[in-house]
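Recap for those who missed Tuesday's class. We walked through two folding examples back to back. For each one, the amino acid string is listed first and its predicted structure tokens come directly after. Nothing is annotated here on purpose, so try labeling regions yourself before you check the end of the notes.
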Amino acid sequence: MDAKDCYDIGLAAYNEKDYYHSILWMEEANERYYFQKEFTQNKTDILNILSISLYKQGNLKRALIINDKLIELDPLYPNATNNSKLYKQELLDNGIDEEDFRINIPPLNITRFNNASYLYPAYRKAYEELCRGEKEIVC
């Protein structure tokens, strides 16, 4: 599997609102991206889905930091600036001072099975087959 394969699986999980698996696969895509000779997946797309998935799981500081990296790579990436504003506002609403946005990052908090679609046998079976490499990704 390369970064693109991991991204595709993570994107499928994201589209099903399965942010737990989306985070895991996007982190794997991000790791594999650096070890590839050819880049078949755009790094900014990986960071975008990772950032939003982290946000959806309540990891606001981590989402902001990943989104910062996205903006650093592509300041004009669609919605990245708006996402940054949203994450910052939510941090403020949670009583976090602006100078603390990027420090004292809590451990990663991800919740498994927060989406009923994960319980559907066909979805779970296809997902597990992809994970074992028994099934090809068809886009």
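Example two. Treat it independently of the first, because the proteins are unrelated.
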Amino acid sequence: MIQADKVRVIDENGENIGVMYTQEAIEQAADLGLDLVEVSPNADPPVCKYLDVGKFRYEAQKKANAQRKTQKTQDIKEVKMRPNIDTHDYDVKMRNVHKFIDNGDKVKVTLRFRGRELSHQELGMNLLRRVQTDVEEIAKVEAYPRMEGRQMLMVLAPK
């Protein structure tokens, strides 16, 4: 409900009609089949606009849905390795890491230790440092290497 006795009115095309009595503006809006909506209540006089509220809500909903569709959800892709990985296998895994990061996804690099490999965690740490230096131009480390049970994890995020 508009409290002021006089308001500045803007039509549906955004053009300034001028200052008029509130009751007169409400009647004009009704004649046009529109609603009178207070846009800026703190202005002197308050600014009101002729709007079709139903259409306005519909378009706002449509715009929000379109924005939600274009938004890309960021996935976490996982690349699993072993601490004593061969060079060619490492290159293939790194190609996948590059592809995932270029697509805008986060990458979780997992090193799984088996048997006595667990006593040589420094090999795993060296491998994860190597991964980190190989992708430092395109990715940043989001979670630094840490042990979780029998595996060592590191999370990379696109820059």
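Answers for example two:
Residues 6-70 form a domain with the Ubiquitin-like (UB roll) fold (CATH 3.10.20.80).
The radius of gyration is 30 Å.
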